Amino acid sequence: MEREKADLILNMGPQHPSTHGVLRLVLELKGEKIVNSDAIIGYVHRGVEKLAEHRKYMQILPVFDRVDYVSANTNELGFVLAVEKLLGIEDKIPRRAQFLRVIMAELTRISSHLIWLGTHALELGAMSVFLYAFREREMILDLFEEIAGGRLHTGYMRIGGVAADATERFIEELGKFLEVFPEKLNEYETLLTENRIWLSRTKGVGVINKETAINWGITGPTLRAAGCDYDVRKYYPYCVYDELDFKVPVYQNGDVYDRYRVRMDEMRESVKIIKQCLEKMPEGPVQIEDTTIILPPKEEVYNTMVGLIQHFELVIHGITPPKGEVYAAVEGPRGELGYYIVSDGSNKPYRLRIRPPSLINIAILPELLKGHYVADVISIIGSLDPLMGEVDR
Amino acid sequence: MLYVKKELLQVLKKEFKDRVRELPVFRGESTVEVDKEILLPFMGFLKHDERFKMDMLVDLTAVDYPGRKPRFVVVYHLRSIPLKHNLRVKCWAENDEVPTVIELWRAADWLEREVYEMFGVRFTGRELRKLLLPQKYPYYPLRKDFPLEGKETPCEVWDWE
Predict the structure, then answer these.
(1) Residues of A in contact with B111 (CB under 8 A)
(2) Does A353 contact chain B (CB < 8 Å)?
């Protein structure tokens, strides 16, 4: 194919405020139209996969918090599920822990979508949505702080359960949040959904059809906006998603506007899921009892010899899964977040590969931008919701 | 996660004879190993055959086994959205080269570039540039013999394209 000749080459980023981090685009323009473009990434490459090869399984968790730094819980969950699959203990995880995991994952989805909504609207000129979205996100971060101690990097999941049980205050505050949040969502929608400026900036822009999306490996809201109902939670249910009643929002046009609609609906579904979890969650332990996998309770470590030895053993030797390879995936806020672990039977993974949904979703950018105007670039990047920490890893 | 059924793996064996080998199933995940020479027809078969319909390349990566020959194995995770099943395909990179699958799945575009810069596996039949690292960076960091803390010797990496 012959390259169309450009009049001007424009460098956008890596410090551009609306590229969601450090994404650099080199746009070849003819007038205001993009004839060719190239995406240059890697500015925050930290070598997470290499780091993981040099750490024990338990030590990897805090690193993965920082891969996708606005949705730490789903990152952890995916990794924890992969290691549990490798160990073959998926069925032994206590049910209360499973429900808590789902609650945290869905809260994370809401908080991540809120950031997306705020920044995406801000980029397209709707400043007020940003302020509202961050107000509600603050409530979620307070919830995280209450249950896990951390606000962004919660470190809540454990191989074999979760770090701590939900406190009464957490349940109470979560109930309050679930009560007010759907109304707030309606409030955001009054600002955007039928807003004429919003519609003209988003409708029919950046269209990806179903076949193209699948061929490019796109997952998450971007794929569902294109008319494919693929969602890991429905296709390959993990934790307790198969017992919960929720819909997967699917839209047909595959443009920026539909991606917005999918994410808005997803937040509503997440509220539904959390409500059901609170109803169905049984009492009981939140950690597996096997001390070769999870640290014994602190009272035992401080007061008994056995506890101390078990603690010591696990910290020094770590978890040693059998030799083998597994792939486990969760539905992160941005799409399918997969972990492929190759184990050689030692206490460190031989190879750990993260399937980063953001990277694979934005690979289509150079192709997608062709023929669009410069102003649409902002709206398209925003709608794909890339997170550069995850793109570069 | 649902993987391709045993009967279907037999179909592959019938079609491609001993050039496709079934690896032991671990935790319910099926893997096949395929010779480099027939990688492209094999992948094309998986994508277009009615019984497989593997229309999505979920992930593409490599694993380094120093001391073994060939040293790198390229791992493809394939999925069929309509049939919901998965399959892992492995292909040993003889002479550190593997044919590209970009014609079948565009998702391979950036993933192959990443494997190239991290392991030095070359994908033939396409243009290869580094993805995350500077273009002039001389090492392959995910190889097992690359130290975790990096190399001390200074190198000219910035290209300011």
Answers:
(1) 360, 363
(2) yes
Eight-state DSSP code of residue A282: P
Task: Count up the domains in chain A and report the number.
Answer: 1
- Supply the CATH number for residue A176's domain: 1.10.645.10
Q: Measured between beta carbons, which residues in chain A are less than 8 angstroms from residue B64?
A: 351
Identify which of B49, B44, B50, B120 has the alpha carbon closest to the alpha carbon of residue B76: B44
Position A301 in a domain: no
- Residue of chain A with shortest Cα separation from B132: A42
Contact of A48 with chain B, judged by CB distance below 8 Å, is answered with no
* Beta-carbon contacts of residue A61 (< 8 Å; ≥ 6 apart): A76, A79, A80, A155, A157, A158, A159
Strands B86-92 and B29-34: parallel
Within-domain flag for A310: no
The pLDDT tens digits along chain B (161 residues) read: 888 888 888 888 888 888 888 888 888 888 998 988 888 888 888 888 888 888 889 999 999 999 888 899 999 999 998 888 999 999 998 888 899 998 889 889 899 999 999 998 989 888 888 888 888 788 888 888 888 887 777 667 666 55
Q: Do B75 and A340 touch (CB under 8 A)?
A: yes
Per the domain annotation, does A254 fall within a domain? yes
Q: Which domains does chain B have, with CATH numbers?
A: 6-100 (3.30.460.80)
Q: Which domain holds residue A243?
A: 48-287+325-392
Q: Which of residues 179-218 of A touch B (CB under 8 A)?
A: 212, 214-218
Tokens representing A334 are 């941005």
Q: Is residue A316 a part of any domain in this protein?
A: no
